[in-house]
Design goal:
Length: 158
């Protein structure tokens, strides 16, 4: 076979091969990033973005002093005042003691999410309040979107 006898150039075949090569490289890169972020629990990962956002909204309401809105976010029920009997286990008065200005944290002026990790059917999130060194661990349930205190504390390292 000589140069003059070479097969005719097939544009469709070359386009398909190029697209398959690009798709393969993209898939390999995404899998590598996913494995690295899953195994290392990298804090910049976006796995827990909805739960982080929910907790940020909760703390924004607490910081602004709107504890009624914060309690609605805590229970995922903005109309909680219409049926307060459903929340007798952790009522609004107890919530005010835990998150109001007279709480252990004082007036909450800032918060910083330091770690988030999926545990069971929810996400446990460690939050430093007012620049504290020891985070409080809260849990956002994936199904009900409620916030609560976490019985699990995550390891932050040395």
């Amino acid at each position: 076979m000589t140069l003059m006898d070479a097969p005719k150039f097939d544009v469709r075949r070359e386009t398909r091969n190029r697209n398959l090569l690009i798709a393969g490289i993209v898939i390999i890169v995404l899998v590598a990033i996913g494995i690295a972020s899953w195994s290392l629990d990298i804090p910049w990962q976006l796995w827990h973005w909805p739960q982080d956002r929910r907790l940020n909204n909760f703390f924004a309401a607490v910081q602004s002093g709107d504890l009624q809105k914060a309690y609605g976010l805590w229970n995922n029920d903005p109309d909680w005042q219409q049926h307060p009997d459903q929340y007798k286990v952790y009522d609004f008065a107890t919530f005010q003691k835990d998150w109001g200005p007279q709480s252990d944290y004082g007036v909450i002026k800032s918060h910083n999410i330091v770690i988030a990790h999926r545990v069971g059917n929810g996400v446990v999130i460690g939050v430093n309040i007012n620049g504290g060194k020891t985070p409080i661990f809260l849990r956002v349930d994936n199904k009900t979107k409620t916030i609560g205190f976490s019985p699990v504390e995550l390891y932050l390292g040395p």
